[in-house]
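Throughout our pipeline, every protein is held as a single compact record rather than as scattered files. Such a record has a labelled line for the sequence and another for the backbone structure tokens. The remainder of this section carries one protein's record, kept here as part of the documentation:
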Amino acid sequence: MRARFEEKTYENYFNSELARQTEIYFPLGQVQEGSLGFDSSALSSNRRLWRRLGHPFWFYPSFAGLELREIADEMEHFLGVTLDNIPSIKTNLLFQYKKPTLITIPLGKEWTHWNEPYYRYDIYREQQDLLMHIDNQFGTKVFIVYASPALHDVNDLVAAHLNRQIINISNFRKASELNIHHRNTYIQSGTFSIACSEPEKIENFDLITTINRINNDNYKTDENNRTAIINFRKQIVSVMSENQYYSNAFKKLNEQYTKIEKYELFYSHLVLSNFRQLTGTQWLVKI
């Protein structure tokens, strides 16, 4: 029985609750991302067009639109000020969200491990290989986790969100723990998992406690926040360029921003946004 809610809904609820419980910085908010669709932007002085869009052009007789470079300049300043006003970045967090399937009958391949209804999600080899490449490249500078809810009904998901229980009803696994497996199974949050095909019991860990333990001993660096994000982007680009499955699509997505590469901070956020859209991996930083 496939979960009856969108994976994105779970992701949004999860991120909202995580932000309240930990010192997390979301590098580029979804509202900002939604307003930065440069692939569909245009510079136009057509008054009929601006009238259709509802812009009060009659107050600005010389209005001719806004160039991308002007937007980039403003966003570079905005992001720089924001980063300068938060504590030092300690580590990068990557979350891979999974919508599970609830297995309710003994015909499920993993039923003998549980002998009761259980949740299951697949581990896609291309995705897992990329996460492990990043894990090997960054070491303690990155924390990579699969997150999946132990429920399947949208009404239960909304109730958990309203009661701020999304994290409590979620099952977490470090990507490195699932590297040799193609599926992960569990019966509820806060318990162990059994990863397959060769069954392996993996003990549960407390996500919030683990994140809060991340301190400067894990990520000692002389980088300031701006440099840390720019360097992280460069390393992600390097890793993605070496990946046969994602490299071409990632390159094409980033080509639309080549004219603003000199705005390194803003460019980094957009490139990492493309990384998230393409791989489904949410990027956050611990501060």
Notes: Confidence is low (pLDDT under 50) at residues 29-43. The chain is about 40% helix and 15% strand. The beta strands are 24-25, 91-97, 101-103, 118-122, 142-149, 170-174, 183-186, 193-196, 200-202, 281-286.
